[in-house]
Amino acid sequence: MTLLTSSNFARPDDAFRAIVEAHRGLTEAQSADFDAALVLVLANHVGDIDVLREAIALAKRRTLDASQQQQQQQQ
Hints:
- By secondary structure, this protein is mainly alpha-helical.
- The protein has 3 helices and no strands.
């Protein structure tokens, strides 16, 4: 299995909205716990350690890139 990085949703905005709405009413700590639980549920659904590792690397790279861009904008 290969990691799919293009949108796999017919209506991606609906998927985004569903995730955002799920956070509504949660504290910051509850929101972080929810994100962790959702990641674990979806990782289990994928069920492929190589794809999971690829997804982890991609997410980490994107997070670090975004952080670097934010720092550059603040300078």
